[in-house]
Amino acid sequence: MTDETIPRRKFLVGAGLAGTAVATGLTPSEAAPTAGTTPNAQPVALGYEFLNLEEAAFVEALVDHMVPADDLTPKSTDLGLNVYIDRALAGAWGKGDRLYMQGPWKVGVPSQGYQVPLTPAQLYRAGIAATNAYCRKTFGKPFDRLGAEQREDVLVGLSTAKITFDSGLQVRPFWNTMYQTVMEGMFADPIYGGNRNKAGWRMIGFPGVLGLYRDAIVKYRDKRYPLDPVSIEDMS
């Protein structure tokens, strides 16, 4: 969230530890197929493959609020987190290519993981629409037009499931999926659109995708690794 509630470095380092598997060059989150339909929306022309205008405004506001500019990194949209999310939703993960989507559909427990009859892309689209509907009902404007305090209230409400959607969409799966993609966008290999200039890796001292660091473990123990991190593109 914002610096005032959770220190940004603490949030991002925690997220980075969870996201280093993605940062090693794996594809975005692998889970989750589809059923249920939501209206298709044409993506906007500004380089987005999936997000429409309203969705793009939501995602840009979301990522810039969760990872704002400071002395560590530029703001999220300058780091490409919005681009990462759009590409993930437009790709195989967003389409649910590896998900079982035949049902039966029952409300699961958290340990069961993704239990929604929607692809991640469908869930994202429905969740953005439901969140904006909540914001309009509560504040008279969509999420991207809210002030920082109101955005914070909405995100805390989503993360704690204190907000419920009139559409009946489950809040927790939407929040978990959204939070996951923000983390991945910050720490995935830059080839996927986020973590521009390897800023996320540099911040937490992650050396990159090259796995041959055996000799450096002892030498740099309790010290910051001094070399630039290595990305997939650097090795091609």
Explain what the structure shows.
The chain has 236 residues and is mainly α. The chain has one domain. The protein is 44% helix and 0% strand. The chain has nine helices and no strands. The protein has helices at residues 8-23, 53-66, 76-79, 81-90, 120-139, 148-159, 171-187, 199-204, 214-219. Helix 2 crosses helix 4, helix 4 (81-90) packs across helix 7 and helix 5 packs across helix 7. The model is unreliable at 1-6 and 15-39 (pLDDT under 50).
Identify the notable features of this structure and list them briefly.
0% strand; 236 residues; mainly alpha; disordered N terminus
Helix-strand blueprint:
Layout: H1 8-23, H2 53-66, H3 76-79, H4 81-90, H5 120-139, H6 148-159, H7 171-187, H8 199-204, H9 214-219
Helix pairs in contact: 1-7, 2-4, 4-7, 5-7
Quickly describe the structure.
This protein is mostly helical and 236 residues long. The protein has one domain.
The total tally of domains equals 1
Q: Into which percentage range does the β-strand content fall?
A: under 5%
Helix/strand structural class: mainly alpha
Instruction: Indicate the percent of residues in helices.
Output: 40-55%
The number of helical runs is 9
CA-based gyration radius: 18 Å
**Looking at the structure, what is the overall shape?**
globular
Mean pLDDT: 82
- What distance separates the N and C termini? 36 Å
* Parts with pLDDT < 50 across at least 5 consecutive residues: 1-6, 15-39
Number of strands: 0
Largest sheet: none
- Helix-strand pattern: HHHHHHHHH
